[in-house]
Amino acid sequence: MNYVVCLKYGNKYSAEYVNKLYNGVKRNLTVPFEFVCFTEDTTDIDPNITIRNIPISPQITGWWYKPMFFNPNLGINGTLLFLDLDMIIFDNIDKLFTHKPGEFLIIRDFNRCAIKSYTKFNSSVFRINTGQHSQVYDNFIRNPSLVIRQYHGDQDWIRASIKIDFDYWPDEWIQSYKWEMRGKPPMVKDKNGKRNFEKIGEPVIKNETSVAVFHGDPNPKDCNDQWVIDNWT
């Protein structure tokens, strides 16, 4: 079974992000799949989306729930394509299931823009088979507070835990909207302190690109680029 999974915890992202991610996947994936959202709050989530409860822990918040997708007893068995909520799926993503079947695949972090040999992970999009690299979960859950103190974020922990048996997605398939598609344009802060592009612009889109990732600011909802307005639907 093929699953597309996402994580919604707390109030950083509304149900709108879940629903629009689901819509983008539906439009651009022909491989049979089930869309599953792991969350503690189902309010306003599309009823066609399967809901799984997060095993709430007082030690864990936000992105630190991502190691649970490496839990061999997660409750869903098959191939899992994890997607962050702050992205736009705008072209066919069948290749994210068919490319190098059986391998763990993840983004080469977007600092690749400045450092060509960069090898850190970005966990916005990764694919895993149930039970694969279970050490990520097993070693985390023994002492989450210790791991959270030692590592900046989940993707740093995943990278430290996985040294072999992985590969990166081709860089062209999944691009940073801000750094790669918009070329690091000047940013300004609004009255609420959020950073946004100084000027509205058009992204440069490679033929192979299917996914735009919105790490940091602006989020898709806040971006005034017409391309974003047209495609985040």
Distance between the termini: 27 Å
Order of strands, widest sheet: 3-2-1-4-7-6-8
Tally of helical runs: 7
> Given the helix and strand composition, which structural class is it?
alpha/beta
Radius of gyration of CA atoms, rounded to a whole number: 17 Å
Helix content: 10-25%
Outline the low-pLDDT stretches.
Answer: none
Overall shape: it is globular
What pattern of helices and strands is seen along the backbone? EHEEEEHEEHHHEEHEEEH
The overall pLDDT, averaged over residues, is 96
As a percent range, the share of strand residues is 15-25%
β-strand number: 12
Largest sheet: 7 strands, mixed
Could you describe the 3D structure shown?
It is built from seven helices and twelve strands. The longest helix has 14 residues, at about 15-30. Helix content is about 20%, strand content about 20%. With about 230 residues, it is of the alpha/beta class. The model has no long low-confidence stretch (mean pLDDT about 95). A seven-stranded mixed beta sheet has the order 3-2-1-4-7-6-8, sandwiched between helices. Strands 5-12-9 form a three-stranded mixed beta sheet. A two-stranded antiparallel sheet has the order 10-11. The chain has helices spanning about 15-30, 95-100, 135-140, 145-150, 155-160, 175-180, 225-230; strands spanning about 1-10, 35-40, 50-55, 80-85, 85-90, 105-110, 120-130, 165-170, 175, 185-190, 195, 210-215.
